[in-house]
Design a protein that fits this description.
The complex is a heterodimer of chains A (346) and B (308). Chain A has 12 helices and no strands. With 346 residues, chain A is an all-alpha fold. With 308 residues, chain B is mainly α. Chain B has one domain: MetI-like (MetI-like fold), CATH 1.10.3720.10. Chain B has helices spanning 2-10, 21-31, 33-53, 60-64, 98-134, 136-151, 154-165, 169-196, 199-206, 211-247, 259-268, 275-302. The chains are: A mainly alpha (346), B mainly alpha (308). Chains A and B meet through helix 1, helix 5, helix 6, helix 10 and helix 11 of A and helix 6, helix 7, helix 10 and helix 12 of B.
Chain lengths: 346, 308
């Protein structure tokens, strides 16, 4: 009896049918195009929901603490920014602008286009998010795999305990505790010669600045813990599979078993988690940037909510929704390449 | 046939003691020490929070028993006091007693965390149930709507909702309900779809069971486990969101001492007195951790694959 190597069913259609476009490439293209088209109604409804909610809100962008603007001034401002028109007209004008990549002017920062505000604050958020992401994925996966390989050992309990604690401590608490320990405490301990700075981000493009250390830990603690927990449980699942036992039984080296048989399979669910992780990073940036006074998009969004700067809120919300939709699409496409068992059905 | 019955009589069947799903789950839950510890912390917190609010006087029962002070009583001559018998956790910048404020904050966090889950269950449960049960265009419509809601990051949508309703306890409450139902709706729909395929449901339909009875007798009890677990994990998420909103200055407003508000206040004066953030910070983290442990315990206890 002989066993053929490889899976015979992986082969495609017989060669005489090869002119029919049934390849994975075609399916994938159709899938991507469909998903990109689906983004249009999603973004449209994101605009509708945000627009309606913002205009339902009590108060207006012209409210000031203390001295109020005179009614005449308010009226003129409304006319200037088109807020005097009926809501549906404002909405159509806004959507027409968005189609032309015109997100309007900020209501609270006179003379500033929303797109300019976003372009100025984007590099801060991008640097912070990118550094965090690049660190959190390998650390999270590494912790998870090590914990799973040494299940029920001290290493496992420590990693799991840390991950559970990090996953259920709010990021602003993590950030504040870091400030207390590494800024206040170290300042006192070393007599003011060494401590981490508590805020700001002097250069938006430099990923190696000391100012980034605490914000990156604050932003990354929760998603790292999430990835670690997920990797651990999926690695444990894989370790119990028959093919892993076979690999051990064949006398494969431990390194080969872990890398070729276990990791390859247990990382598949982790890839799906990258979408939510990205969303975490965005909402985490609201808090982290506010906490450490980083002038990024998250902070811009939070302060524009408080100031009722409708156009900035809408612009940033559309940006966030678009980013998340794109990342989810990339993750879904990656998934097809990583796991050959997955078939695109949509 | 007769021999089979005869055989059955001869074999000494090792019948395990009959236990129901819930009793079984409770036994397994109790074995998880962390989950039990979490449950104990939560129960203690609920009692403390109730005592801080229940005779609706400032300070509640604990003030009447002279265990704590009043949460709103200012004494600016005694600001940033170090912990003492009078003020076990010290005082804040306005000389208000921190312990009584943290207990008051517990009532806000726990109410929002737990009670919102019923709103989420109502919205998410009925949407998921309707989508899964009716299928067809209703399913399509509801799930596309769910997809759109999914395009928003949670906190972003909550922020927009709270901005729309104005900052208050109730607007946070409603905003959380209107945002966090999405995950539950998807779960319930999946559960209903898989249960619908089961033979016993087919049998029930075949024997002419009414849709209402089908839902109440079969769909609800069989999808209850995962729903309870999801809702339990929703509690720390809701507590976190409320605290984050208040911390960002968009949630509950002072003088009402929610934990988020206390952390925001304390953060402003962190260089003067770090204790102002340490205590409410520990309170939030401990509460969220306890609910996570209970959720982990429930998940393991209610997972039918783990049943022996």
């Amino acid at each position: 009896m002989s066993v053929t190597a490889g899976a015979p069913f992986r082969r495609g259609a017989p060669s005489f049918l090869s002119w029919i476009p049934t390849g994975r490439g075609t399916t994938l293209t159709i899938f991507i195009v469909k998903r990109l088209l689906w983004m249009i109604p999603v973004l449209f409804f994101v605009i509708v929901i945000t627009f309606v909610l913002m205009h339902l809100a009590p108060g207006s962008p012209w409210d000031r603490e203390g001295r109020q603007l005179s009614p005449q001034v308010v009226e003129n401002l409304n006319i200037k920014y088109g807020l005097d028109k009926p809501l549906w007209q404002q909405f159509l004008i806004y959507v027409w602008g968005v189609i032309h990549f015109d997100f309007g002017d900020s209501l609270r920062q006179p003379g500033q286009h929303v797109s300019d505000l976003i372009l100025v604050s984007w590099p801060y958020t991008f640097t912070l998010g990118a550094v965090t992401f690049i660190l959190l994925v390998p650390i999270g996966i590494g912790l998870g795999v090590i914990a799973a390989l040494r299940q029920n050992s001290l290493v496992d309990y420590t990693a799991l305990g840390l991950a559970t604690a990090a996953a259920s401590t709010p990021n602003f608490v993590v950030g504040i505790f870091l400030i207390i320990i590494f800024a206040l405490g170290m300042n006192k301990l070393t007599g003011g010669t060494f401590y981490f700075p508590t805020g700001g981000m002097p250069s938006p493009f430099n990923p190696f600045q000391v100012e980034l250390i605490m914000p990156v830990i604050t932003l990354g603690a929760l998603p790292t813990a999430y990835i670690a927990r997920l990797t651990r449980s999926s690695t444990l699942d894989t370790l119990r599979q028959d093919f892993v036992r076979t690999a051990w039984a064949k006398g494969l080296k431990a390194r080969l078993v872990v890398i070729r048989h276990v990791l390859k399979n247990s990382l598949i669910p982790v890839v799906t988690a990258l979408g939510p992780t990205f969303a975490f990073l965005i909402t985490g940036s609201f808090i982290t940037e506010t906490l450490f006074s980083i002038p990024g998009i998250g902070r811009t969004f939070v302060s524009s909510i408080a100031a009722r700067d409708y156009t900035v809120i809408l612009g940033t919300t559309i940006l966030f929704a678009l980013l998340i939709a794109l990342v989810n699409l990339v993750v879904d496409v990656l998934y097809v390449f990583i796991d050959p068992r997955v078939r695109l059905t949509e | 046939m007769a021999t089979a019955i005869g055989l059955a009589h001869q074999v000494d069947w090792d019948v395990p003691e009959q236990t129901g799903l819930w009793k079984d789950a409770w036994v397994r839950f109790r074995r998880n020490r962390l989950a039990v510890a979490g449950l104990v912390v939560i129960v203690v917190m609920i009692v403390l929070a109730l005592g801080a609010r229940l005779p609706a006087t400032p300070g509640g029962l604990w003030k009447i028993l002279h265990l704590t002070n009043e949460p709103f009583l200012q004494d600016v001559t005694n600001s940033y006091a170090t912990p003492s018998l009078q003020h076990p956790l010290g005082t804040d910048i306005l000389g208000r007693d921190q312990l009584s404020r943290i207990l008051y904050g517990a009532s806000i966090s726990l109410t929002i965390g737990i009670v919102v889950q019923f709103l989420i269950l109502g919205i998410g449960g009925s949407i998921g149930m309707a989508a899964g049960y009716f299928g067809g265009w209703i399913d399509n419509l509801l799930m596309r709507f769910t997809d759109i809601m999914y395009a928003f990051p949670d906190l972003l949508l909550v922020l927009v909702f709270v901005a729309a309703f104005g900052p208050s306890f109730w607007s946070i409450f409603i905003a959380l309900g209107l945002v966090y139902w999405v995950g539950l709706a998807r779960l319930v729909r999946g559960q209903v779809l898989s249960i619908k395929e089961k033979e016993y449901v087919e049998a029930a339909i075949m024997t002419g069971t009414s849709p209402l009875k089908l839902i109440v007798k079969h769909l609800v009890p069989n999808s209850l486990g995962p729903v309870i677990v999801t809702l339990t994990f929703g509690i720390p998420a809701a507590i976190f969101t409320e605290a984050a909103l208040s911390f960002l200055g968009i949630g509950i407003r002072p003088p009402e001492p929610s934990w988020g508000v206390m952390i925001e206040d304390g953060y402003a004066g962190i260089f003067a007195d770090p204790r102002q953030v340490i205590f409410p910070g520990i309170a939030v983290a401990l509460t969220m951790l306890s609910f996570t442990f209970v959720g982990d315990g429930l998940r393991d206890a209610l997972d039918p694959r783990m049943r022996r």
